[in-house]
């Protein structure tokens, strides 16, 4: 990432501008330990990279979910070390999924605006197949869009896999997610044996961020090991 000055990295002003925040807010997050310190470049100017920008986006998503700064700090402390901007984007997408399901009806122009890109007819068909959008029978140009899935669906449009492979992968993930949710809910029932709906919801609200983060971290590590085995690289412990 190159700043406006042409040097590698962003100044704090450039970072704040790209994140849509004030410099004061960025410095505040840094002072609270939520944002790693910058690299000190020429003329003792701090330089920030893509990971800082991704971290800020994650922090803002967590704040949008109602977490306090202390809770955000605890969440960030549990993240695996060395996450790059792509890993942070995945965590942000997971955090965004905590919000209640939201389906809105929009026209094609508004869908493209929210997607942040021009959408071809084939793109819309693929998003429909993924369950991200669906036709609205009330109007020819109207589409029902799952706003929580839109960001993920748009990113999948650029994945070099066939539509069939993406849908098959979605089925695998959903099947395993449902199985994990079933086993975890059974464990929660042991903690709340009585049919107390309020207690169940309270426990679920507290556990959901922790469980999602644990599942995501475990999956990322497992997938990394699978890829290393696939391409013949040794694992982190040095075993073949």
Describe this structure in words.
- The structure is a single chain.
- With 240 residues, the chain is mainly α.
- 60% of the residues lie in helices and 7% in strands.
- The chain contains 10 helices and 5 strands; from the N terminus they run ααββαααβααββααα.
- The protein has helices at residues 12-19, 23-31, 50-64, 69-77, 85-96, 108-115, 121-129, 147-156, 163-191, 197-231; strands spanning 39-40, 46-47, 103-107, 133-135, 142-146.
- The strands form 2 sheets. It has a 3-stranded antiparallel sheet with strand order 3-5-4.
- β4 (133-135) and β5 form a beta hairpin.
Based on the coordinates given, report the CATH architecture of the largest domain.
Orthogonal Bundle
Please provide the ordered H/E string of secondary-structure elements.
Answer: HHEEHHHEHHEEHHH
Terminal CA distance: 35 Å
Kindly state the number of beta strands: 5
SSE diagram, text form:
Elements: H1 12-19, H2 23-31, E1 39-40, E2 46-47, H3 50-64, H4 69-77, H5 85-96, E3 103-107, H6 108-115, H7 121-129, E4 133-135, E5 142-146, H8 147-156, H9 163-191, H10 197-231
Antiparallel strand pairs: 1-2, 3-5, 4-5
Sum up the structure in keywords.
single chain, 240 residues, mainly alpha, Multidrug-efflux Transporter Regulator, Chain: A, Domain 2, 3 domains, three-stranded antiparallel sheet, two-stranded antiparallel sheet, 10 helices, 5 strands, 60% helix, globular
Concise account of the structure shown:
The model has no long low-confidence stretch (mean pLDDT 80). This protein is mainly alpha-helical. The chain has helices spanning 12-19, 23-31, 50-64, 69-77, 85-96, 108-115, 121-129, 147-156, 163-191, 197-231, and strands at 39-40, 46-47, 103-107, 133-135, 142-146.
